[in-house]
């Protein structure tokens, strides 16, 4: 059986990698990009450059979007919306859950089905084993195109709510950026003390790889709303974070990142959690949002 042909709109680093993976797997690929020259190398490898967005949509049922954000999708697709009927839009651009839900409604209004995708790898991970993408939206549409979408990454279907894939993507990124900035901050303090990133690397890796065990220990307690101070106490944590802030200041390094952490710890103390675990700080976050 011949492989499903597919349209890819958006040829940034991610879209380029996706088209490359489809071509390598023997799929016919139609592409469109605002800056048409970005298609040159892909066309040389066999991709077909559609002259217009409407042509790109008309070429295939499955339309993969890889754009900076959802606003770019409306900019591109709105003028060609008459060609959307019957299409499945696998939107692998990242944005907020609310934007994903609105896009699903917008697509349905034009007779198309919208799949939200949250890619969990860099462009180099596309087409590689072990990479995954969160998907949400109509399951039958994911299932119908699973074989083709799996050329890019494995599928982790999160549910029918269009926002779910975007939500999982964003909460992963919430952790990723905060963790990576904590590393950069530690490196700035290390550098001020003559320690290079390479020298610190095994210790940084050791700290990061200890985190899964802490998460596994605390997750069940957090779900139950229990924060007993049997293993750690917030009051102890405050002293620890104060030491980190002072170490940064003494090294002449901007302490704003650990100072923000200290502020949350102190708010937990004020809220009466001194004898509880640091996990009680989740209650501080929840109250801040309401
Ligand atoms: P880029 O921001 O480089 O891709 C931008 C694409 O969107 C280009 O095709 C660009 O067109 C197009 N675009 C942006 N704004 C507009 C607009 N107003 N009108 C028309 N076209 C527009 O992103 P990547 O390729 O790196 O990533 C694509 C998506 O994948 C993003 O949502 C990103 O968050 C997500 N992602 C990226 C990862 C990565 O490591 N790169 C990892 C995981 C997810 P033009 O070429 O003309 O500028």
TrEMBL record:
<keyword id="KW-0560">Oxidoreductase</keyword>
<feature type="domain" description="6-phosphogluconate dehydrogenase NADP-binding">
    <location>
        <begin position="6"/>
        <end position="152"/>
    </location>
</feature>
<dbReference type="InterPro" id="IPR036291">
    <property type="entry name" value="NAD(P)-bd_dom_sf"/>
</dbReference>
<dbReference type="InterPro" id="IPR051265">
    <property type="entry name" value="HIBADH-related_NP60_sf"/>
</dbReference>
<feature type="domain" description="NADPH-dependent reductive aminase-like C-terminal">
    <location>
        <begin position="161"/>
        <end position="287"/>
    </location>
</feature>
<dbReference type="Pfam" id="PF03446">
    <property type="entry name" value="NAD_binding_2"/>
</dbReference>
<comment type="similarity">
    <text>Belongs to the HIBADH-related family.</text>
</comment>
<dbReference type="InterPro" id="IPR006115">
    <property type="entry name" value="6PGDH_NADP-bd"/>
</dbReference>
<protein>
    <submittedName>
        <fullName>NAD(P)-binding domain-containing protein</fullName>
    </submittedName>
</protein>
<dbReference type="InterPro" id="IPR048666">
    <property type="entry name" value="RedAm-like_C"/>
</dbReference>
<dbReference type="InterPro" id="IPR015815">
    <property type="entry name" value="HIBADH-related"/>
</dbReference>
<dbReference type="InterPro" id="IPR013328">
    <property type="entry name" value="6PGD_dom2"/>
</dbReference>
<dbReference type="Pfam" id="PF21761">
    <property type="entry name" value="RedAm-like_C"/>
</dbReference>
């Amino acid at each position: 059986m011949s492989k499903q042909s597919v349209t890819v709109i958006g040829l940034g680093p991610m879209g380029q990698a996706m088209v490359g993976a489809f071509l390598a797997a023997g799929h016919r690929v139609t592409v469109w990009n605002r800056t048409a020259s970005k298609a040159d190398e892909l066309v040389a490898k066999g991709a077909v450059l559609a002259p217009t967005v409407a042509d790109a949509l008309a070429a295939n049922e499955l339309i993969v979007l890889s754009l900076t954000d959802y606003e770019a999708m409306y900019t591109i697709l709105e003028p060609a919306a008459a060609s959307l009927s019957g299409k499945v839009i696998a939107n692998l651009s990242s944005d907020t859950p609310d934007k994903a839900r609105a896009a699903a409604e917008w697509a349905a209004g034009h007779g198309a089905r919208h799949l939200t995708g949250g890619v969990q790898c860099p462009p180099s991970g596309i087409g590689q084993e072990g990479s995954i993408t969160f998907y949400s939206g109509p399951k039958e549409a994911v299932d119908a195109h699973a074989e083709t979408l799996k050329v890019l990454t494995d599928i982790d279907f999160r549910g029918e709510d269009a926002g779910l894939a975007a939500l999982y993507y964003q909460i992963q990124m919430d952790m990723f950026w905060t963790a990576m900035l904590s590393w950069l901050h530690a490196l700035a303090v290390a550098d001020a003390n003559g320690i290079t990133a390479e020298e610190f690397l095994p210790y940084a890796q050791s700290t990061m790889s200890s985190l899964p065990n802490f998460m596994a220990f605390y997750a069940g307690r957090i779900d139950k709303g229990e924060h007993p101070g049997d293993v750690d106490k917030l009051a102890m944590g405050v002293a620890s974070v104060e030491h980190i802030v002072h170490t940064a200041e003494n090294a002449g390094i901007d302490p704003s990142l650990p100072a923000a952490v200290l502020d949350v710890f102190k708010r937990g103390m004020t809220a009466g959690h001194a004898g509880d675990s640091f996990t009680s700080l989740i209650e501080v976050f929840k109250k801040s949002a309401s």
